[in-house]
Amino acid sequence: MDLKSGYPFWAVRNGLMHAFPKLDEDLRCDVLVIGGGITGALIADELAAHGHEVVVVEQRDVAWGSSSASTALLQYEIDTHLVDLARRYGEDAAALAYRACGEAIDLLAGVARDVRDVDFERTGSLYYASRRRDVSALQDEYLARRRHGFDVEYLDGPSVQARYGFEAPAALLSAQAAQVDPYRFASRLLARLARRGAGVFDRSTIVDLQARSRDVVATTEAGARVRARHVVVAAGYASQHWLPRRVARNRSSYAFVTDPLDDDLPERLARLLVWETARPYLYLRTTGDRRLLIGGEDDDIDVPARRDARVDKKARRLMKRVHALWPELDLQPTFAWAGTFAETDDGLPFFGPHPATGPRVHYAMAYGGNGITYSMLGAGLLRAGIERRRHPLARLFAFDRVD
Q1: Is the entire prediction scored with pTM above 0.85?
Q2: Alpha-carbon span 293 to 368, nearest angstrom
Q3: What pLDDT, in 10s, does the model give residues 243-295?
């Protein structure tokens, strides 16, 4: 699958950081991770850190798929409101998902600090009402989050204007969020794994999985075989290839990044994620070198050639929308791109086995706007499953919740 178009900033900024060998021999391991993006890297790192012998196999260069196109907003806030999740799964389950995402940001901070040099930074998150009719839902969301102890502040229209310099009828300001360079993060994690003795292979495609009672045999297109006690399929949106029916829908999202703004970047926007209640939503963040990264304009296009043709037009639309909020900002896209992502009906991920492939094949489908946050949660959840321990999120993130 062609997952991205244009010039994703992280790939341009970093270049090809690490090259790994192709898999050209038969191997045995405890856990085979299929997918060398940020999701696979975080899961492999968690498993290896707790004594599991891990092999990672990626069909492209590592982190060169969706991870290089991700805009990497790290939030506890899920695309589906807490109040809406509560109506669907109960308030306790909804609050558990939100709290777990908050804890995942702290876990990501720890991993980033350990790996170093991945442009990780703590930020706030400003979630504003796109229209006046969204204010009531925003107020309900604020009360629900406060009831469950989240550090969130409700801002009325004048307060948004005074503090952030644009007009919106209301907003929620959350203290807990972060941002990172996802391509650099994944690449450095996998390079560290290789130095520590894990097998990391790229440009090797797994074409067959044979799940048996005691192990799983995975075969590459070149005929190499990996025999593992467990397999984790962390191949992003291609993971659905192994399932009998789709559990998420693919969409395209668009983004651009400016040149470094230096003194022209308003301090009120530094260390802040901004997004809105409209769906699809506009969002923006800064980078470590003081650029603005702006994204949104999502659509249902899932044909690479059609997505490619829309990149420049979508970047201009995004630029106009940000200019409408802050007319004083003179923004020009330096690099613009689009990427394919998947979204589930309820905004939650899928982690764990699927009945179609048996208990030894585990899926890591960190779909939606919280992909990296979900991946950090999934690392612990999947390790618990492999070690035959209970995990509080296993039921909520399981495939059978949608049956």
Answers
A1: yes
A2: 18
A3: 999 999 988 999 999 999 988 888 899 999 999 999 989 999 999 999 999 99
Tell me the C-alpha distance between 352 and 179, whole Å. 27
SS3 147: helix
User: What's the pLDDT tens digit per position in 24-59?
Assistant: 999 999 999 999 999 999 999 999 999 999 999 999
Residues forming beta bridges with residue 125, ordered by sequence position: 174, 273
Distances in Å between the Cα of 107 and the Cα atoms of 125, 173, 201 are 18, 22, 26
CA 5/CA 340 separation, integer angstroms: 9
HSE-up of 288 (CA within 13 Å, CB side)? 16
Question: 249-257 and 335-343: which strand pairing?
Answer: antiparallel
| C-alpha span between 205 and 164 (Å, rounded) | 47
Q: How far is CA 118 from the centre of its chain?
A: 15
Asked if 237 contacts 1 with a C-beta cutoff of 8 angstroms, the reply is: yes
Q: Helices 91-115 and 82-89, interaxial angle, to 10°?
A: 130
Exposed/middle/buried for residue 66 (C-beta within 10 Å: 0-12, 13-18, 19+): buried
E-assigned strand segments in 9-120: 27-34, 54-57, 73-75
In angstroms, the Cα distances linking 76 to 2, 96, 127 are 29, 11, 12
The two three-digit tokens of residue 72, written as one number: 């990497």
Q: Which residues of 125-150 are buried (b: 16+ CB within 10 A; e: fewer)?
A: bbbbbbeeebbeebeebbebbeebeb
Q: Where are the alpha helices (DSSP H) in 329-401?
A: 371-386
Answer whether 293's CB lies under 8 Å from 286's CB.
yes
CB 64 within 8 A of CB 89: no
336 neighbors 255 (Cβ within 8 angstroms): yes
